[in-house]
Amino acid sequence: MTNPFCDPYLVLSKVYGGGAYLKQALADTPMEEANRARTVKISYGVLENDGYFNDCIRAFAPKSPKLPVRILLKISLYLLLFMNKPRYMITDNAVELCKKLGKGGAAGFLNAFLRAFDAEKVPVPADKIAVLAQKYSYPAYAVRRLLKEYGDEAEKILAFRENKACVRFACSQEEENVLARGGEKTPFDHVYRFSSFRRGEGYDEGKYTFQSIGSIAVCDAVEPAERFLDACAAPGGKSVLLAAKCREVTAFELHPHRVKLIGQYAARMGVNNVTAVCRDSSVFDPAYENAFGGVLCDVPCSGFGVVCDNPDIKLFRTEKSLTELPETQFAILSACSRYVKEGGALYYSTCSVFREENDNVVGRFLKENPAFTAEKIHSPLAGKTTRFGVQFLPHISSGAGFYVAKLRKR
Fold first, then answer.
1. Structural domain of residue 132, as residue ranges?
2. DSSP 8-state assignment for residue 320
3. Where is the SAM-dependent MTase RsmB/NOP-type domain (predicted)?
4. 71, 257, 285, 327: most buried by Cβ count inside 10 Å?
5. Is 308 a catalytic residue?
6. In this structure, are 79 and 149 located in the same domain?
7. Catalytic residue among 98, 166, 219, 351, which?
8. Could you give the count of Cα atoms lying within 13 Å of 196 in the half-sphere of its Cβ?
């Protein structure tokens, strides 16, 4: 058996050192298959608690360690504080890997740190925002926005950590077979959530797929149309699901390699009425003017509604990027609105919980485009009605932090 630190270290090095997204790092890293679940758990756990671990390191390290040592310390802290592993085992494995990495000079520091560490001695900030930022490992700017928008409910959003696999079945027999092993029913037909779900042959055969419940809720809000445009489509989950209620779906995607993902997704699920096109959705293309009965703009966003599934968001997003995103979102919504024919519907969605990316963008669009009006959405998934749409929140919407608005072109 390999050192239990080894595989998580390789994965996290790609995230911290190479800027890779966690899911991609996990997919690209060869690892001991028998312990894959452990590696995934540790990798997610470290990133979920990254901010707090930084405070722990500052409290017990006289100066900031180099990146390889910091990663080893964070893995150690996760095993110690969240997996309740013996301190001696953690210390021995951390020191052993440190030496194998050619960082033998830091082995003594690592050993001393782990023997001395005491969570009770990590200083707790006095400021409320800083306290919540430390407790939930959130950037302070995100905490500030959540408190401003949600008040006392903000901490429930911060505290939510449940990360269940959401599975949508396309084959009733496979659904029955899998549900024999348990599954939590959702408000949507053939969609279940699982605390633990191992992918099998049924996935490759298109009998089921993984799709977030928020994504499914967005598709549920869409009415059938002869021709439909999914304007920011990769990897293709929404396009494929919408193909069941629309005669023809066109899927725009900016990056060529992600266009291929849409085609592969549709082929795996046996769907043949989705056409993937490489196109920048923020730039109007007159070839598609008034061409669609429905258009969905699931725009690039901060992703703070899905941090349980993507904890690296807290690491990579900055306050500057959050303030810049609404301009991109508005540009996509404005350009794609010209593809909607009279009487058709324009849908705007994000996986964000922040008003500036949601109602504010839609409000600005409606002010500048009087031909469109907002329509009420009735979703079977619990959510909060906002001025222009529905805001799903992780703690009340089965883990979904999504927003969707429906705009009718008169």
1. 128-159
2. H
3. 130-410
4. 71
5. no
6. no
7. 351
8. 5
CATH number of the structural domain spanning residue 60:
1.10.940.10
- Residue 236 marked ligand-binding: yes
Contact between 239 and 251 under an 8 Å Cβ cutoff? The reply is yes
Residue 104 labeled ligand binder:
no
The verdict on 185 and 149 lying in the same domain is: no
What confidence tens digit (pLDDT) does each residue in 230-241 have? 999 999 999 999
Distance between CA atoms of 93 and 277, rounded to whole angstroms? 49
DSSP character at residue 131: H
> Two tokens at 239?
């396009």
* Cα separation, 14 vs 30, whole angstroms: 12
235 labeled part of a ligand binding site: yes
pLDDT in tens, 42-80: 999 999 999 999 999 999 998 999 999 999 999 999 999
- 263 and 387 both lie in a single domain: yes
Q: Which whole number is the average pLDDT over 319-338? A: 96
Q: Are residue 26 and residue 49 in the same domain, yes or no?
A: yes
**Coil, helix or strand for 369?**
coil
Amino acid in the structure at residue 3: N
Shared domain check, 295 and 201: no
The CATH number for 348's domain is 3.40.50.150
> Is 55 assigned to a binding site?
no
Whether pTM exceeds 0.90:
yes
Phi, psi of 394 (to 5 degrees): -50, -45
The total number of structural domains in the chain stands at 4
Q: Tell whether 142 and 173 lie within a shared domain.
A: no
- Contact yes or no for 80/117 (Cβ under 8 A): yes
pLDDT of 1 higher than 70: no
- Clarify whether residues 58 and 140 are in a common domain: no
1 belongs to a structural domain: no
At 163, the pLDDT band (50, 70, 90 cuts) reads confident
- Same domain? For 270 and 147 the reply is no
